[in-house]
Design goal:
Length: 188
């Protein structure tokens, strides 16, 4: 009788490394790697007329908001909370100190802005101010302008902000222009 020797089955592993490499390349090419998107903010455009961009601003038309390294918010030298910023900005912008704004509903205070087109919000921050506070204050300023614009849209066009046309939005931006100056205060 003949004896049969059985050899164990083997798999040719020579091309396994090639297959693994090809699979690795395939997954690297087809996989999307999510990246941080950051903050969606539109940067100011270049100033076409430099003389208009560096003109002097009447002191009463300037609202100073300062953020310090202790994460405190100062408006015109007074400490305020984040919740107060929106209402203070709205009252400042819509003040109508010159009494020539027919759509303004402000109190016409002598120490506040003359007209929404003249109102400038100056936001300054310390180098050690946390981003979270800076962005939160920016958001409150934006909310104040949004509320003023939404009220104007409702009164003038009898619409909501989502319903207006591009031409109507241009009018609203001229009526309540978003004029914010941002400055970082350097520490000595």
């Amino acid at each position: 009788m003949k004896s049969f020797r059985r050899h164990s089955a083997t798999v040719n592993a020579g091309s396994m490394a090639d297959i693994a490499f090809l699979l690795l390349i395939f997954f690297l090419v087809t996989t999307t790697i999510s990246a941080d998107k950051g903050i969606l903010r539109q940067l100011p455009s270049d100033c076409p007329n430099i003389e208009e961009c560096i003109k002097d601003i009447n002191e009463r038309n300037l609202l100073r908001i300062e953020l310090n390294h202790k994460q405190e918010i100062f408006i015109e030298g007074d400490v305020v909370t984040l919740n107060e910023v929106k209402n203070i900005v709205k009252a400042f912008v819509d003040n109508n100190g010159a009494s020539d704004c027919d759509y303004c509903t402000g109190e016409q205070l002598a120490e506040s802005s003359d007209h929404p087109r003249e109102a400038v919000v100056s936001l300054s921050h310390d180098a050690l101010t946390k981003y979270e506070l800076f962005i939160s204050v920016q958001d409150e300023i934006t909310k104040a302008y949004y509320d003023l614009r939404a009220r104007y849209i409702e009164n003038e066009f009898n619409k909501t902000p989502n319903q207006i046309t591009d031409n109507e939005f241009k009018i609203v931006k001229e009526v309540y222009p978003f004029i914010v100056s941002e400055v970082m205060v350097k520490r000595d």
